[in-house]
Specification:
Elements lengths: L1 H13 L1 H14 L10 H16 L6 E2 L2 E2 L6 H13 L3 H26 L2 H13 L1 H6 L6 H21 L2 H18 L1 H17 L3 H4 L2 H24 L3 H16 L11 H9 L7 H6 L8 H19 L12 H16 L8 H23 L14 H17 L1 H28 L3 H5 L9 E4 L5 H6 L4 E3 L2 H10 L4 E5 L11 E8 L6 E7 L2
Parallel strand pairs: 3-4, 3-5
Antiparallel strand pairs: 1-2, 5-7, 6-7
Subcellular location: Cell membrane
Protein name: ArnT-like N-terminal domain-containing protein
Keywords: Cell membrane, Glycosyltransferase, Membrane, Transferase, Transmembrane, Transmembrane helix
């Protein structure tokens, strides 16, 4: 037994990828329940999953008792499994997101190791492991973690089928594509299809596209994905279909929604910033892409990157999470380049390290100013000093690069950013966000009484109260409620109080929304 234990310890000391997976688990799971539900999309998704579970309804998603047509149901199903296992809490809502983050890292390692090289796989995993944005997204109760994993799995499995012609890979690819469609909609299938067709044509693998097995491929997708879309269409009398496809897909692509527009250059910027720190090498990668075309797996990763960035660059609505399905593939391109430099097949200049240092100094400055400007977070401004870690890491990596080369510099980046991401995501970020207006005002609300809202409120109130909030649309309705029930409490925004000048109300609480311009207020009857 002692000898076996010693063998395990020896393997851990010598197996780099084992340590990377252990670090990934720590970064993804540590403290995921510590941050309160406050971000709007997180709260809506978590509560919608709960409402479906409590109604024993697997078909129609609702939020606050009303149809929620923003997304298909896959993430709701996984959240419900976690609720059964861990209870109704933030940890459960985020558990499977973190798990799929770990699995995304694993499949990136597995397929890159299988079809490129061990070195490329190691460095590709490292790129994802130190990306704060990648880790942050997979610690949230949103559909993107599921979408990213299943798109990545679908493309990898199709590639494996193209190389090995084993039917199991084609079936796995089809199932993954169908589940991606159930995670965010047909856009997942369309973009994945565009990549695979482009890659197959570029490789002159025409037999892949014109084979009876493609009929099987699409049949599996239809069998897995279509039934829910048909059932929700029937159950909602077509309302889900209309809202989801036209408002939340076509309209979002055609024009900016909720103020999330901008120039096409925003999306490439989102990807570059999202994959910091290793994305500072992207300029060097872009100058030396010729060898990338000779390796089919790397070529496919280039196509994924181009398709997703191009599509969302021309989309009217632009958000940082939209192009995230290309992150594993950009990581592979960066990992491939880093491995070539380390093995002496290519070279890299110093400027990426200087760029990283400058960006980290700017982030430290922005964090210090941002926490200082926000009234609620001024006492916790010291948390901004966490950003000193990336600054020191960037400086150290440059020093190691000068003295010992890129490999040691990369080790410094992995170590420094792992420490930073753990402290920031698991301790610093939750400590700051505990001072949001929902957490501060919840003690004033009573779970056994009806809570009201005037026009708008933070959906996290639903999650913590676990009951519908009745929304009032005009001042007359507010007057009636306060007259009939003087104990009633109404949630709203400070900017809307001017509309209630004729209403005799008393201000119970006023709390500025963190890092937003809005201010949450609670009012009751004036007595």
């Amino acid at each position: 037994m002692l000898q076996q234990w010693n063998n395990v310890l020896l393997q851990l000391r010598t197996n780099k990828i084992t340590w990377l997976f252990i670090i990934a688990a720590l970064l993804l799971f540590t403290g995921i329940g510590a941050t309160p539900m406050y971000i709007l999309d997180e709260a809506r998704n978590a509560q919608a999953a709960r409402e479906m579970m409590e109604r024993h309804d697997l078909i129609v998603p609702t939020f606050n008792g009303e149809l929620r047509a923003h997304k298909p149901p896959l993430h709701y199903y996984f959240m419900q499994l976690a609720y059964h296992a861990f209870g109704m809490n933030a940890f459960a809502a985020r558990f499977f997101s973190a798990l799929f983050g770990w699995l995304t890292i694993w499949i990136t390692w597995y397929f890159t190791r299988r079809f490129v090289s061990y070195g490329t796989a190691i460095w590709s995993v490292a790129v994802l492991l130190v990306s704060t944005h990648f880790l942050f997204e997979f610690r949230m109760s949103v559909p993107d973690p599921y979408l990213i994993f299943f798109i990545t799995a679908g493309i990898f499995c199709f590639y494996a089928y193209a190389r090995e012609r084993k039917l199991k890979w084609l079936i796995c690819s089809a199932i993954a594509a169908a589940l991606a469609t159930l995670a965010k909609g047909p856009v997942a299938l369309a973009l994945t299809g565009a990549v695979l067709v482009w890659w197959a044509l570029s490789q002159k693998k025409y037999d892949l596209l014109f084979s009876w097995k493609m009929i099987l491929y699409f049949a599996v997708i239809v069998l897995v994905a279509l039934p829910w879309y048909a059932l929700v269409h029937q159950a909602s009398n077509g309302e889900f279909t209309r809202l989801f496809f036209f408002e939340h897909n076509f309209n979002r692509f055609g024009e900016p929604m909720e103020g999330h527009g901008g120039l096409f250059i925003l999306v490439p910027a989102f990807v570059l910033l999202g994959l910091l720190p290793i994305s500072v090498f992207i300029g060097e990668v872009a100058k030396k892409t010729k060898p990338f075309h000779t390796t089919p797996f790397i070529r496919m990763s280039m196509y994924v990157t181009v398709v997703f960035i191009a599509f969302f660059s021309i989309s009217g609505t632009k958000l940082p999470n939209y192009p995230m399905p290309c992150y594993p593939f950009v990581a592979i391109l960066l990992g491939y380049f880093i491995n070539k430099v380390i093995t002496g097949q290519s070279q890299v200049k110093q400027y990426p390290f200087w760029l990283l240092l400058v960006l980290n100094v700017l982030l430290l400055t922005a964090a210090w100013i941002g926490l200082g400007m926000e009234t609620a977070t001024q006492p916790f401004r010291g948390w901004a000093l966490l950003f000193i870690i990336p600054v020191v890491t960037a400086a150290a990596s440059w020093w190691f690069f000068k003295k010992e080369g890129l490999k040691k510099a990369m080790h410094a980046i992995i170590a420094g950013y792992s420490v930073f991401n753990l402290l920031f995501l698991a301790i610093g970020y939750p400590a700051v966000y505990k001072h949001n207006p929902v957490t501060k005002t919840l003690p004033l609300l009573h779970a056994n009484e009806q809570v009201y809202s005037y026009k708008i409120y933070n959906p996290a109130f639903n999650f913590y109260l676990n009951k519908p909030i009745r929304v009032l649309d005009d001042a007359a309705a507010v007057t009636r409620i306060l007259k009939d029930n003087p104990q009633a409490i109404i949630i709203s925004r400070e900017s809307l109080l001017s509309e209630l000048e004729t209403v005799p109300f008393k201000l119970l609480a006023k709390e500025r929304d963190l890092f937003e311009t809005a201010t949450t207020v609670l009012i009751t009857a004036k007595r």
